[in-house]
Amino acid sequence: MLTRLEVDGFKNLLGLSVNLGAFTCIAGANGTGKSNVFDAIQFLSLLADQSMTDAAQQVRGVHGERLGDPRDLFWNGYASGSHTMRFAAEMIVPAQVEDDFGRPAEPTTTFLRYELELGFEPPRGPERIGRLALRHESLRHIKQGDAHEHLRFPHSVKDFRGRVVRGRRSGQAFISTAESPSGEAVISIHQDGGGRGQSKPAAASRAPATVVSTVTSSDDPTILAARREMQTWRRLALEPSALRAPDSYNAPGELRPDGLHLPATLFRVANETFDTDIADQVYARVAGRLDDLSGVSVRSVGVLQDDVRQLFTVRLQEADGMTLSARSLSGGTLRFLALCVLLEDHRVGGLLCMEEPENGIHPANLSAMVELLRDLSVDPGAEPGRDNPFRQVLVNTHSPGVVQLVPEDDLLFADSALIRTSDGAVARSLRLRPLAGTWRTDSASTDYVTVADILPYLTAPAGAHLTLPGEVA
């Protein structure tokens, strides 16, 4: 669970700090940079799994493309001078993970703060583009006694915090960065035993990847747990063409971020206990949830098994008896169905990011969509477990309808503001502000919005031809 994100120098994120709860909705006009928050999270997730070069090439470019030049990720892009971006992520990691060899590992402590600084090295010799350079990386624990100061969202101390924040740590960090006599940054891995054993130092300038991404065994269980947590931060971009596709019998039963393998995932979720009664209950719950949509009358949902072609296909039966395949369903219905399946899949944890979930959804169904998204996230008032998966949901929207349905505590409002950087330059940066009086508002800060500031989300636009009785247009 990502509880706090700090970003400076990545795209238009300058000095950004945001506290996250189980469910967070970022609302703002197009072009403010809301998606850059998702890009930053995705970038950190990719850096925990791949080389810096590969991670940079997979992040969305400033114009929507995936570009090969890493300068596209810096706020000052192709301007002269130095390029630096810094990240910090506070996270609750799993209490037990598996390494790349299938061996179990238990971290020393589960509440961690990860910091990363990247620079840019210009091309040399025959190189056509430059590369990212690792300048600083650290991973340290957050004391149990300080957890209440970091977990600001409402939660049960006994059933939630007492279950997910575990372990103790004394001594130095798990990953640290120091400067060598020659002035070069040296990154060291320290064993979970604190003072026991030798640290493992390496020169940062020659590193092709982050230290976290290189830990694959149970020898460093806490770093491994941080890596596993970051690998679960996924960005959902559900595509109707992928959701409509049938699956072969040997397809992986795990829904991809684009929605591929929906039939195989639904079949696996329903049948993993080999109990037909439980399978029927899963299908019935999915059908019941889908029936909440206005204009959709669902009697049953299931997976058709074609033994001749060895294919799984999602099948929906309407109340009048008509049977429809996934190919006959609208994009909005398919996206809603995919989220219903994720809700049933207790294996799915980590952070789910979703942009503009209202796309393809009729305004009458926004309430059902918002309720489903909130149900996907863990209930911090109860103990996480199979019936309360440790999931976190982050969405962004520009829809007034969505904003009106999301509880005040779960909202952050996005706009842009001119700021002066450390080198004296003026830049336009994304700003995220909570609603006054919510847990996200720092008592010492005035950086929040009031109801008067968000009237465009609460009233009909000027010039509206149709309004409800009593509403001013």
TrEMBL record:
Keyword Manganese: no
Key words, A-Z: DNA damage, SOS response
Pfam families: AAA_21 (PF13304)
InterPro entries listed in its UniProt record: ATPase_AAA_core (IPR003959), P-loop_NTPase (IPR027417)
Residue span(s) of domain ATPase AAA-type core: 23-56, 262-403
Name this protein carries in UniProt: AAA family ATPase
Organism of origin: Streptomyces polygonati
